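wait is this the right file?? whatever heres the structure
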């Protein structure tokens, strides 16, 4: 009867989690701009990475040098579901996060079942399944690894709790298999795995020094955590488990534990953990790369929001939905750990979640399940003081609704759009029909994965390949004049292809592309090489076509795009500091044009006020589309000695304020004005949402 009750709770919590996630579908019913191939598109850029890999697996496309993740778990599992389920591929990638992320309710309720308080697990599962940050990263259409990134460690927490409580052999195997599966799914899981291991080691040394079971658990965890291929670790775990069952290792368990630790060190050990800390916590603004030619690059981590510091209120809301709930959850977790000390095993997840306060908001999801237990326990702890059973039920129900309410409100308000609009995908679909598989598309990294998925081409940068070293050339291409941009595009594409063919011990492979270009062309200073692009330089042999993808949506991130090439690579100092300002919030009266944020244009004097500074405007330019979607350009000279340009994109209801450097940039000239050098570029798609130009050289 108790088991039946447990599974009923699991089913109810699972259904609740799924239904809440379907609110997004209900809200956007009938929005045609979000639909492609008769289904809603996904709403996270990274999802297109896994979708690309799954698509290529189903098409048996395992191109040697493609960046498609055909060897990664996310793509493989998706391909499996797409193959066996009677739904379209678009439907599978849209709804998979809904059902996989909702599995988190299973280990949560099983944990509570092991504590003989399954009702606590039910309320905690309701809370955790839709908590602010967990919902954000597992909602319908958020097709990314987060749909299982909390499910696996919560199952691991369950098996560790049962292992300590029961000392049963099966939980040795469960724990090890969960670690293997978690690493298979998410290679960055080693930090959390090692934190769990460290806590178990501390517990064993302090409380269970004579318990051989604890040393068996530690040893098999180390075997499952080794830096070896998944299949090798899986086989190793199974072999060790059966040796355990035969009792052959019992008398040598201390030696085997030492041997396991040595294997762990020899196969990677702590290096990946340190790498993660350096990436998210110890961030450098400028990265220095190279030996024979040291270059300085802008660090991408300074522009990634999920790696940035967040206010306490945001931190608390993302974990529990409300600051008060968060504080009560922490109190409840302390009380629960006093009553059930085994719940202290959840500290690694809480600790990683709290790292978000200093190291990036994405980590908050790890604390969600454990602190959901905290608030749930506190509710039942307080209800125990009520003697009337009816009053107790009303109290529990009221408190449950109260903690869920702000999270449900957030779900309703969190109307995230799809990554691309239908019109933008139409552009990429046209590009797919004209480009070859080996061709390259130059675009900012935000759009790399969707471009590869919809156009089936190569990109120079994407959501995973976006270090300062690879971002610099693309940023340079977008923000510099057409001649140097076009030439650098040809250099970067051909050097990228050459890198694939280099041997592992080739010294050129250890340098960045820009360093190799500099040295190969006889320069010792990268600035001299970049200057040569303006005055004439020999280009590498053309092996494939290159397209520039220029979307309107990139306007909003142009200041960020500019930062990656606005740097002297030799010294790390800022170079040009080009000026770019965009707004669609403006107020026009007889004398002034208020462009918001302290930017005001005086129409009579032709002066532009930016904060406390006044500058002359050289020209006022207007662009608009006629009925045939042909671009019309107008320009009015204001001050011959002006330094700034005011651009009104009438069809977009958008104003731009630019200095001369930004006005002459490839992105502005090609997208805003369609003013292209006919010897360098050829327009192939001129859509208001995104424009594509083919490189001629």
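ok assuming it is, sequence goes like this
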């Amino acid at each position: 009867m108790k088991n039946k009750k447990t599974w009923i709770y699991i089913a109810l919590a699972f259904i609740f989690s799924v239904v809440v996630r379907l609110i997004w579908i209900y809200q956007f019913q009938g929005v045609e701009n979000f639909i492609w191939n008769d289904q809603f598109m996904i709403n996270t850029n990274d999802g297109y990475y896994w979708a690309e890999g799954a698509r290529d697996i189903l098409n048996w496309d395992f191109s040697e040098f493609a960046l498609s993740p055909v060897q990664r778990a996310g793509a493989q599992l998706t391909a499996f579901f797409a193959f066996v389920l009677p739904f379209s591929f678009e439907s599978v990638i849209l709804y998979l996060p809904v059902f996989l992320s909702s599995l988190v309710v299973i280990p949560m309720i099983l944990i509570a079942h092991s504590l003989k308080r399954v009702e606590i697990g039910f309320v905690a599962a309701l809370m955790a399944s839709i908590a602010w940050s967990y919902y954000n990263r597992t909602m319908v259409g958020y097709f990314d690894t987060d749909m299982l990134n909390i499910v696996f460690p919560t199952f691991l927490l369950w098996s560790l709790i049962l292992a300590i409580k029961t000392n049963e052999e099966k939980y040795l195997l469960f724990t090890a298999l969960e670690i293997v599966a978690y690493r298979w799914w998410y290679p960055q899981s080693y930090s959390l795995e090692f934190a769990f291991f460290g806590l178990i080691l501390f517990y064993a040394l302090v409380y269970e020094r004579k318990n051989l079971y604890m040393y068996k658990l530690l040893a098999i965890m180390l075997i499952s955590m080794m830096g070896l291929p998944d299949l090798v670790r899986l086989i190793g775990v199974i072999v060790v488990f059966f040796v355990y069952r035969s009792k052959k290792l019992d008398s040598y368990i201390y030696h085997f534990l030492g041997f396991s630790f040595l294997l762990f060190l020899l196969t990677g050990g702590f290096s990946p953990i340190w790498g993660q800390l350096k990436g998210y916590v110890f961030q450098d603004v400028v990265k220095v790369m190279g030996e024979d030619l040291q270059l300085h690059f802008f660090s991408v981590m300074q522009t990634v929001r999920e790696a940035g510091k967040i206010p306490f209120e945001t931190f608390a809301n993302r974990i529990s939905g409300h600051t008060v709930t968060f504080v009560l959850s922490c109190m409840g977790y302390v009380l629960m750990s006093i009553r059930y000390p085994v719940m202290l095993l959840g500290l690694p997840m809480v600790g990683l979640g709290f790292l978000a306060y200093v190291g990036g908001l994405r980590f908050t999801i790890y604390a969600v399940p454990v602190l959901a237990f905290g608030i749930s326990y506190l509710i039942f702890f307080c209800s125990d003081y009520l003697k009337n059973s009816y009053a107790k039920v009303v109290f529990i129900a009221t408190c449950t609704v109260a903690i869920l309410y702000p999270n449900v409100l957030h779900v309703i308000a969190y109307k995230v759009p799809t990554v691309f609009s239908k019109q933008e995908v139409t552009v990429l679909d046209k590009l797919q029909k004209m480009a070859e598989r080996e061709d390259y598309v130059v675009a900012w990294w935000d759009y790399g994965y969707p471009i590869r998925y919809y156009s089936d081409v190569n990109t120079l940068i994407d959501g995973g390949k976006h270090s300062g070293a690879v971002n610099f050339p693309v940023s340079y291409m977008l923000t510099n004049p057409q001649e140097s941009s076009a030439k650098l595009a040809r250099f970067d594409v051909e050097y990228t292809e050459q890198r694939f063919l280099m041997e592992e011990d080739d010294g050129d492979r250890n340098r960045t592309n820009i360093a190799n270009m500099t040295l190969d062309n006889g320069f010792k200073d990268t600035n001299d090489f970049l200057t040569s692009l303006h005055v004439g330089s020999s280009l590498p042999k053309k092996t494939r076509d290159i397209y520039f993808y220029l979307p309107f949506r990139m306007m909003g991130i142009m200041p960020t795009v500019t930062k990656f090439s606005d740097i002297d690579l030799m010294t790390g100092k800022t170079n040009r500091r080009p000026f770019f300002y965009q707004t669609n919030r403006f107020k026009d009266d007889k004398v002034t044009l208020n462009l918001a944020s302290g930017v005001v244009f005086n129409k009579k004097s032709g002066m532009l006020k930016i904060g406390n500074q006044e500058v002359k405007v050289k020209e006022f330019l207007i662009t608009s589309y006629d009925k045939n979607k042909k671009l019309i350009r107008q320009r009015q000279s204001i001050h011959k000695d002006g330094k700034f340009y005011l651009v009104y994109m009438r069809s977009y209801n958008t104003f731009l304020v630019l200095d001369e450097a930004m006005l002459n940039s490839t992105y502005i000239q090609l997208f805003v004005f369609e003013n292209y050098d006919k010897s360098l570029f050829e327009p192939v798609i001129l859509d208001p949402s995104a424009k594509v130009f083919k490189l001629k050289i």
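The chain has a mean pLDDT of 92. so i think its the right one actually
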